[in-house]
Every structure is written in C-alpha cells, then in structure tokens.
Amino acid sequence: MMLSRSPTLRLTVASSRMQMILRQTISSTTVLANAVPTEADLKPTYYIPKKAAKFDEDVTSILEKNRAGGETRINRVGRLCPTRELNFTSDSWALHKSNWRHFRHVKYLLRSAAIQRIAVPDLAWVSFVASGVTCYNLYFAAEHATVDATGFAGASTAIGLLAGFRVNASYGRYDECRKFWGEINNTIRDVACQALMWMPDNTQKKRFLKLCKAFPMTLVFHLSGKGSHHDMKRKTPENPPFADRVHAEFLAELRDIYSDGKDEVDFERLSRVKYTGGNTPVEVLTMMRETIAACKGEIDAIYATEMDKQCQRLCGAFGASERILRTPLPTGFSRHASRLLFIWTTLLPFALYPSLGPWGTLPASLFSSYAVLGIEDIGVQLEEPFDILPMRQYSDGMFDVIDQMERNYTPYVLGEESQN
User: If 0-12 CB within 10 Å is exposed, 13-18 middle and 19+ buried, where does residue 296 land?
Assistant: First the structure.
C-alpha cells in the first residue's frame, strides 16, 4: 500500500502510459499518412480554378452571388442559411444608403434570412398559441385566459434589453474577427514584398511567395469545416465521405498555388498534414520560417529578423482567430436568454388579447415575436463570424495581390546621371 502511494511510482506509471499512447498515435498517424488520397483519387465539386474563372465568360467569380433586392451577397442555398455579404464597393455603399432602401427591404421581406430562419418552429409556435388563446376565449372560456399587461410590459422591456445585449456581444466577436483578417491581409502584403526585396535566391523567393498564398487558404479550411463551400452537404447517399470531399476541394485550391509543378514536396506535405487532422496554418508558418532560415548568410540578419516578425504577426492573428472559434459566449447565458424568449413569446398572446381582442392578437403576436426573435437570431449568427464572413474572398484577394507584386516588381536602378 505504501508503494502504491509513492509519487515516484505514480509518475513512472503515468510516464509509461504516455509513452504507450504516443507510440499508438505515431503508429496511427503513419498509417493515415500512407493512406492520404491524391488528386487522382478525389475530384473537386465546387472549386473553380482561377484560370477557368478568369477566361470563362460564364464564370464571373468562384462565389455564387445573389442580387435579390439589388444587393450582392453569397447565395443562400437553404432556408436556414444566414446572410453572407461580400466585400462592399463604392456601388454597394451607394445602394446601401439609398433613400428607397426601406421599400426595397420590405419588398423582399419574405426572402430575408431572419424571417425564414425563425418561421419554423418559432413563429409557427407563436401562431399556434395565439390561435389557441383566441379560440378558447371566444368559444369555450367562461372567463378569458389572460396575463396582466402591466406586469408583462416590464418583462418585455427586460427581454428587449437582453436581445440587444446578445447582438452587441456577438457583434464584438464579428468585428474582432474582421480585424484579424485585416491584420493577416496587411501582413501577407508586407512579408511578400520583403521577400521580393531581400531574398536573393529566386527558388527560395518563389517558394516563400507560394507559402504566402497558402497561408490564408489553409486558414479558411482551418476555421470553416467546409472550407467556406457553404452549399456542401455533410451527408449524401451517393458521394464519398465528407472528409474526402473537403480534402478534394483543399487539394484543388492548393494545386492552384502550386500549378507550376515545382515545390511538390511542399504540396504533398501540406496535403498530408490536412488529411491527417493536423494544423495546416501552423505548418505553413513553419515552412515560411524554414525558408527564411535557409537564406541565412545570403541576406542581412536584420532583414531575416524583420521577416520573422511578420510571421509572428500572422501567428498572433491566427491564434486570436482560434480563440474566437473555440470559445463561444458563455453557454449558460445563451441558454438562459433562449428560455426567457420562449416563455415570453408563449405568454405574449395572453397579454395582448385583452386590449386587441380576437382579430388583433395573432398579427400583433407574430410581429412582436418576429422583431425580438429576429434580433436574437442575428446575434446567434454573428456569434460564429467565420460562417458569415467572406473569407474565401479575402483569401483570393491576397492571392491576386501577391501575383501582381511578383509580376510587376522591378528594382529601381539609378541612372548614371543621377549617380553623378
């Protein structure tokens, strides 16, 4: 008994167990690595290569666009899909601020994500309760079933504040994630330009620029289970497993970056890490730092340090994005708010009946519930920013900017007259 309580013995047993688990993990990872499917095994369904997107007149973007109501957004493929806006332009802002916007928005009310998402079961439940209260009070009740409107008004004020707080807290997460992507965009531009200026070896330079393109692309797949292919279904009877279909899209996008047939080792390395469940953005950062380290002695140490600082900026923005992804608002608060809203919408017809009667109870209950539940549902969607931000558009923008830099970068050389 004394031996079983020995800290040294417990530590030894724990260490042995950890070693066994580590060996099993390495063994399973090796098996998975050998079984990584190739491009020949998996064909993408949704991704359109950039060359095809540029030269095919029918394809204006790899993103489907919906211009219902005159606004440009990613196409909603189902009733439960949230609104996913694309990057605004000057034309978008002009339309957004139009003095006819109220009429346009009401015209497409039934197409809005908010009303379609809460129509069933929330508004259907409110309609059922309101109809039941009306019928009961009209035909069966000796005394009307109602709730005191004075006390209910105070509860309604609290419910409105609760829904508003929910949206504000969720928008804070949304705004923070948009800033992270802005930081990534700026850093990618900086470090790509630094590679063009300071890396003397052309092979290493091209490898580094490919990794700059790969970082935002791998980050999209890391933060979104579908790689922002929102119309991809998890369960389909005739298609391959979901993980293989996602990997097919990943390989297609990665091949767009490595389309010159060079640096195939990097291509296979990233493919293997992705398929085995590894952290591909971290792997890209590791490869970027390997490339910087390989230039040791060829570039000044100050330049190498500056490029490493840019990698640190990318790592910081990436880590902050992971924090948002893995940490929701306190779930106790979300559940409490959901319960209160359900109780409030259920009791609402009882409070409205005394003043509005049988004809006004149902429409008033539906409108009031739509107003409050719609705000709460928008907050729920904003809580997961990576499902509604146009991350694919951000990634494509960085790809195009790096291509432009590489294509147009020409070091300026002073002429003889200027030197004299």
Answer: exposed
